[in-house]
Amino acid sequence: MNKHILVTNDDGVLSPGLLALAHEMRILGRVSVLAPDRNWSGGGHVKTLDRALRVREFLLADGTTAFGSDGAPSDCVALAMLGYFKEPIDLVVSGINVGANLGHDVTYSGTVAAAMEGTLLGVPSIAFSLAGADHRMFTEAGRVARMLAELVLREGLPRKTLLNVNIPAGLPKGIRFTRLGHRVYSETVRKEVDPRGKAHYWVGAGPPLWEREEDSDMTAVHDGYVSVTPLHMDLTDHQMLQKMAGWQDALATKRSPRPGKRRLTPAKRTGSR
Ligand code: MN
Predict the structure, then answer these.
(1) Distance of CA 15 from the midpoint of ligand 1 (Å)
(2) Which residues lie at CB < 5 A from ion ligand 1?
(3) Residues of the domain holding 113
(4) Is residue 194 in some structural domain?
(5) Does residue 8 lie within any of the structural domains?
(6) 31 found inside a domain
(7) Ligand 1 centroid to 28 CA: how many Å?
(8) Which tens digits make up the pLDDT trace of 98-123?
């Protein structure tokens, strides 16, 4: 019954957030660490196909052994689960990230992408992020991570579902189960000129603004609660798909055959008519 837990992150294998997470996971089972050898924050869901991946051994600050790869966080998870470690993995945990991953951050976040990769490979996976950059808070955040990981090890997660957990700065008031909030985009592009007179650009320099919605992850963390959001890997908009049944006819009438070309066979209609 000794569970094998994979610990990874996107801040790099030597991040204090990973150290805190690995420390707590060792209370729950056997831990293997395979994480990027540099900071991949904002790297999103990556699959490196154009080059080989290298893995080096690292010694963490607590004297434990970890492995660092020159791949992305999602590459590390694939590598770990598809054979780098001989024994099968029962749980993937990613983090604890320095800084929250709320709302649409989840599509940019390497922390969340690592958990997504674990989910796609069929193992329960959780992403952990700490709001703010106060490293002293990793100890408390680690405890929260252990509680949730223990629950997931016991109860499991449905297929294609992962958990995105954000921990507030300071002592949490409690836990809220939330949905993704909405950022109010104030993104900007700043143009600057380098010493050689060439222009370059900085994107995303706007202040982080958000809408206050009662059940959102952003509101929970802002109010001082741990936010736990279940995410699903089926990104299909099922409501829209239903509405698109009517598009078949609209597209069929607009499509005229090109001169000299064979007429296209209309696609099979779905739904009863
Ligand atoms: Mn990060």
Answers:
(1) 9
(2) 10-11, 41, 97
(3) 3-180+213-238
(4) no
(5) yes
(6) yes
(7) 24
(8) 999 999 899 999 999 999 999 999 99
